[in-house]
Structure formats: structure tokens, C-alpha cells
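Onboarding guide, step 5: your first structure request.
Type a short instruction followed by the sequence, for example:

Predict the 3D structure of this protein.
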Amino acid sequence: MGLYKVSKEGEMTPFSQKDFNKVGVEETLEEWIEKNPYVLLESEKILFIGRQESTEFGKILDLLGVDKNGNTVIIELKRGMTPREVIAQALEYTSWVEGLSFEELNDMAVRYFQNSGSEYKDLKHGYENFFLEGENEVDADTIEFNRHQRIFIIAQEITPEVIKVARYLRKKGVDISCVEFTYYETDAGEKIVRTEYKLGDIEPIGEDITRPHSTAPPAEFKEFLQSVKAKVKGELSSKLLKDLNETKTPSKRLAFWYPPGNIDYGFHYYVHLGGWKPNVYTPIYVGVSLGDQDPDKNEEAYQLLKNRREELKKVFGRFDPQIGGEKTRYVQDEIKWSGDKEDLSKELLDKVAERLKLYIETLKPILDELNP
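The system replies with C-alpha cells like these:
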């Protein structure tokens, strides 16, 4: 989707999305976050106390801050797509930060304040003044600094593998969040940065947020899937629909598959509920499963999509074929749902249906080349 600036005369000027790797804005982005920490925690503030700090492992931590509760905030920035090792790197930094004494944190804060020209004298002085709200004073002596650590991974694109591992860690009690930044410019040089949480804004910490199977989804979700199916069928061409089987009475999963016949065979275009508990974050997955019983044909389909990844990224925005086991290969997106039946809105329905339709319209002609 495009992003435009609208003038008083109603003229629309497009903002062009820029690649961080090409424009070299990682250091600039670091400065922007440093000056505007609320972009990470919209309802909270972060007092930064360190930047480009060397750890005992010889690595460089991008930014370190504290929140109002005295928790340390570790920020790791990456240009472009997150590498697999970003999780290990963030955990390495966090293990180092966890071992810092108050005196070490204070020494770091003093250096940072002096280098940045801040009026704060030390960590407690900075904390009390930074978090001062109206006439209510904040007493730093009542705060236990660095009792808890919070991790933020920030990048232009965070891969599904990184999100999956981060979600597992979050489920196990690690306070880790993933945030994507998108950078735009107009021809006149005006800049826009858009942020989007990929993990951490609504998911709880310390419980299984990805597979809450203990409760069946509400009847409203079944109706929601029926509406998604009706909308997709109503908007797809008869040519595309002709060869597709469909789930007759979807409960947690809706699927169109090809070729007709055995549901375990062929290519499945699906909407699947990752699990459900009342009012708990629940992922809705939309994608295609290459669920052919012939591993060779399955791998052929996987390689076909993988080889066209860059082309398909322009259509989907993100496109990452995955290996799910000996036989299964898939590509999918995750759409957030609060788990509240009241939030099964028309907007969510349209979003899910449009994504499923895009998968069928774009990938079925490509996969048909294999004559499954």
C-alpha cells in the first residue's frame, strides 16, 4: 500500500519506501529512537543511560535505558532483515546487563549524560527528574534498578524465524519485543518513519500465547470463517474456483485445496486459528501449505516459490517459504486477533479475506505449472 502526502489543494505526493541498507540510516535511526523513546513504548518513557557500550564479550550494545520501574531496556538495531543470530546477540547483551551492579550502571549513566550534554548528574538524579510527573516527586531510593530486563529487537524486516524464537522466549518469561521500522521519503526530502509491533505489544509474558488449545473457539469465529469463505468465493474468478475444493463447515480452519480429492494431497490455501483462550492474543494464520504426499514434488514446489521470492515480496510485502517437517512446506502470514469475539470486526474479516484471496490469485497460477 502506498503512503501519500496530501496538499491543501488536494494533490497527493507519494512517499517512497527506502531500504535502510541503501540509505545508511541505522545510526540516524538510533538517534531518532534516542530522542523519541516513546515510539517503542507509546504509554511509557525510557531514560537512556548508554549508547554504543562495549560489553565484556567485546560486542557493542546499541542503546541501553531504564523505564519508570527501574527495569533496564536493551535495544538492538538491525538494518534490513534480521539475521538468525540477532536473538543470540540480544540475549548475550541482556546477560551482560543483568550482571551489572548499580555502581556500574551509574558510572555508565554519568558518562552518557556528560557526553550528551545533559544536566543530569547521575542515574538517580536523572531518574527523579526524567520521570517527574507534575508536582509528584519520584524517589529513586525506593527503586531497585535492573531487577528486570526488557529486550527490543528493531529492524526494517523481522523474519518469521526470529519472531517464532522470540515468541517462544516470551512464553517462557523473557520480556522480548520485536518492532519493524519502515522509512519513507518524498522527492522533496521529507521523511516518515512508521513503526509496527510484530511481537510484544499485546502478548502476555510467561504463558503459552501461540498454542492455547484448552478452549474451543467461540461460535462467532466459525461464523467469521464462513463469512471469509463467502467473501473470497464471491470475489475470485470462476476459473480459479473451478478446481478448488473447500472446507464445508470450518471451525478453526478454512481451506481451499487443489487438486480435488484427498485433503492430504496437493496445495492448501488456508486460514487457521493458532489456538484460543478468551481475551488472549491469538494468531490467525493465512497462507498456503504445500502438503503433497510426494516429498520430491513438495520440495519442487518449495524451491519454485523460494526462487521467485524477491518477485513475490513485491506482491506480498513479505514472502518466506518455510520447512515444517519431512513432507510439509508452507508460506504464511500472521494476523493479530485479541481473542475477544467482539473484535471479529468487518475490518479484520476484510483483511483476512483479502490476504487469502491474494495467496490464491498469485500462487495458484505459479503452482499450476507443476501439474500436481
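Each response can be followed by summary notes, for example: Confidence is low (pLDDT under 50) at residues 208-214.
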